[in-house]
Design brief:
With 304 residues, this protein is an alpha/beta fold. The strands form three sheets. A seven-stranded mixed beta sheet has the order 6-5-3-2-14-1-15, with no helix packed on it. The radius of gyration is 21 Å and the shape is globular.
């Protein structure tokens, strides 16, 4: 009997060990290297009724690193995005990566990183230039970018087709209805100013606010009908029933499926592509969002 119990115990321990090894492999290797395209039909009551639909790809939290997001992978993702035929590509910040102590200040600073690490990030930033769309590619800064070096990020991306919008709006002229992209500075490392950013936007125009941190959706000065963001990673690690143990924004859970609303205003948040802190994802696979945005009587978001 004792031998039988010991045998069962060994089998149980072996099964637990094997399960743990499989889950670790998924979390630290397979899922971070996966990629899903999530398509949504977005209707906003904040756009003029005669505005034609706009096909938007939303990318965020690339987090260049040497583990799961080297520059070559960014180029492959850009190829996949081109195949989706978006009208516009929006990049919602955090292009620079960082694991361990480099995931936050002061160790995240460019001056404190190795030459090899900085070369990798600079090559990765340059690779973002492979993203292209007929009506343009627009970007905002994220907290990791400014912890590293805001000025260097701007310098590198200025040599690409990407337009940086920092408390600034740009009009996308279209015969079937102009759309304004309103880029907002990062809430942790810069000075977001919705009034300044939208100063030249005509009243009642079709607008999209692009801001890295979804928390800016709750600011009293934010009256934008539609905000697109990243930052949360949907927690990066999620479990059934309890969701994400680590929540870096109050909108981590209510946007885990991609969106939330406040009255007729919509907040859409992508899980992003890369990782920070640890090179791990579980239950929150890297995501490209493809949004078809159109006007309507009520604001809704539906998977398509």
């Amino acid at each position: 009997m004792l031998m039988r119990l010991k045998g069962k115990r060994r089998w149980i321990l072996a099964a637990i060990g094997l399960t743990g090894a499989i889950l670790a492999a998924i979390a630290f290797w397979f899922e971070p290297r996966s990629l899903v395209v999530s398509e949504f039909e977005v209707t906003t009551s904040g756009w003029p009724a005669d505005t034609a639909p706009l096909r938007v790809v939303l990318i965020s939290d690339v987090h260049v690193d040497g583990v799961h997001m080297p520059p070559d992978r960014i180029r492959r993702i850009a190829e996949r995005v081109r195949a989706l035929n978006p009208d516009v590509i929006l990049l919602a910040g955090d292009y620079v990566g960082g694991h361990g102590l480099q995931a936050g200040p002061p160790k995240a600073a460019r001056a404190l990183r190795s030459a090899h690490d900085n070369e990798l990030h600079e090559e990765g930033l340059a690779a973002l230039g492979d993203f292209g769309a007929p009506l343009g590619v627009y970007a905002v800064m994220g907290n990791h970018d400014c912890w590293w070096d805001c000025d260097r990020v701007r310098e590198i991306l200025s040599k690409t087709r990407i337009q940086f919008l920092e408390n600034r709006a740009v009009k996308i002229p279209r015969a079937n209805g102009d759309v304004w992209i309103v880029g907002i500075e990062d809430g942790q490392t810069q000075n977001p100013d919705f009034q300044l950013a939208s100063a030249h936007v005509p009243k009642g125009a079709a607008t999209i606010a692009l801001a890295h941190n979804p928390g800016l959706f709750d600011w009293d000065s934010n009256h934008m009908p539609l905000q697109l963001s990243g930052h949360s990673h949907a927690g990066q690690v999620r479990f059934p029933l309890i969701g994400a143990p680590v929540r870096i924004t109050r909108h981590t859970e209510d946007t885990a499926d991609g969106w939330t609303s406040k009255g007729e205003r919509l907040l859409i948040v992508t899980r992003g592509l890369g990782e920070s802190g640890l090179p791990v994802r579980f239950g929150a696979a890297p995501q490209i969002m493809l949004l078809t945005i159109r006007p309507g009587k009520t604001s809704t978001v539906k998977p398509s």
